Amino acid sequence: MSTQSSRRSFLGHAAAGFSTLALARLAQAQPTTEPPPRAAQIEHAVTEPVSVEVNARPIPNFEPRDRSRVRFGQLQYRSGLVLTSPYRGFGGLSGIRLDAKGERFLALSDQGGWFTGSIRYSGGKMIGLDDVEASPMLNSEGRPITEKRFWYDTESLARDGNVVYVGLERVNQILRFDFAKGGTRARGEVLPTPPALRKLPSNKGLEAMVVVPKGQPLAGTLVAFSERGLDADGNLVAFLIGGPSPGQFSVRRTEKFDISDAVLLPSGELLILERKFSWFTGINIRIRSIPLKSIAPGALVDGPALFAADLGHEVDNMEGIDAHVTPEGETVLTMVSDDNFSMLQRTLLLQFTLME
Question: Which of 292, 201, 280, 206 is nearest to 245 (CA)?
């Protein structure tokens, strides 16, 4: 089969996969008198700590139609991997946080599980994952959070040193974990949140979070974004939790994009990863830049797009983003996709250099 035919076949399968995803989410959004069976919701939940074998296939070109192209908006492609595993619970990755070197990672699946490990590099390019371990996310009693009805849709992840925050989209709650007390075996405590946050749509709620560090405007604030919770003007609702100025603000929604994750750069630039699905074009990905200094209670914030991609590129359901700075001073963005545990979708790990 020719390269073009193979690519067309992939695009068709990917579009079919996202069509299936859209149908599933549409069905979930409809009012029902009887909730879906709990067993189906946590089918791929991690039940106990376990070492996981993860295989990695390199993605040499981000745009197969033009293999010489490496620049995409303000991003330059570095490397990418297609990740697969014989472990049934591997997948559904909806958030990732890296160490300062971009090597050790903490990721979560949307089935209430942690994944930790290391990215292996060669010549600055990712070539595989090492020492991957899966663990169930624990509640305050030390039991898997999935034992509580609807407490499984873990979609957002923020980290402040040893303190880790996880947002549960289905119930719109935030858990706080102190990793100094056992790492991924730490117990999660429910964080007090604004009443308006808990009223977000159950399947379009908490999707992205960042913690503002010392030295930045709003230092000490947990900034939480909804996927598609809309204000009266149709813009995306977000919250400032704790810090000097708690409150609610909005992110201007354009072209029907929804928020899937965010990362705060040392420069004070907040990058928001967004996506949208269309029956005609499939999945579209975008990264927008918003100055942190523009965020305040009651504000409507906006910013330019730095990057855009669609199924003509090597993308899937991109749900996680993080950043690190290399010894050479380059800012590297890492993105991960949620395969929805579907045979028609892929778990991708992509890295780009943010260019001036």
Answer: 292
